[in-house]
Amino acid sequence: MRETSSRELRGPGGTLGDQELSCIVHAFPDEAGISAHFEGSDERSRSAYELITPAGFELYGSVPRALIEQMRREAADAGVGLDLLLDPIGGFLRSQT
Fold first, then answer.
1. Is 37 in contact with 5 (CB distance < 8 Å)?
2. How far is CA 93 from CA 4, 59, 89, 90, 96, in A?
3. C-alpha–C-alpha distance, residues 48 and 58, integer Å
4. Angle of helix 65-78 versus helix 31-38 axis, rounded to 10
5. Band of the pLDDT at 26, cuts 50, 70, 90?
6. Among the residues of the chain, which ranges form H helices?
7. Other residues' Cβ atoms within 10 Å of the Cβ of residue 3
8. Which of 5, 48, 52, 73 has the most CB atoms around its CB within 10 Å?
9. Helix%, strand%, coil% for the chain, nearest 5
């Protein structure tokens, strides 16, 4: 998995629970996949924001510069942060037990 987009969302009282925090993760195999996902995302985001309030955004891996700028604008409009973790993190950790 090379690209992951994660959105933390806070629902209005009762929708997800009072001040409950949920996280939606989108994973894509490459830049083309994440680019295709973002096509038409403005309309989908507006619909989603009628029900939820974003708490922040994160982008991982190789993400096209235009999408980073789009997410910066979206985060600024929502008044939340955008964390960029663009260096690949490969492999896994082994337990020392």
1. yes
2. 19, 22, 11, 10, 9
3. 17
4. 40
5. confident
6. 31-38, 41-48, 65-78
7. 24
8. 5
9. 30, 30, 40
Contact between 38 and 64 (Cβ < 8 Å) = no
Nearest CA-CA partner of 23 in 47, 64, 58: 58
Mean pLDDT of 10-21: 54
- 32-66 pLDDT tens trace: 999 999 998 888 888 888 888 888 999 988 899 99
The residue behind tokens 């999408």 is 67
Residue with the two structure tokens 């001040």: 19
Which single residue is written with the structure tokens 């993400």? 63
Per-residue pLDDT of 56-97, as tens digits, reads: 999 988 899 999 999 999 999 889 999 998 886 666 666 676
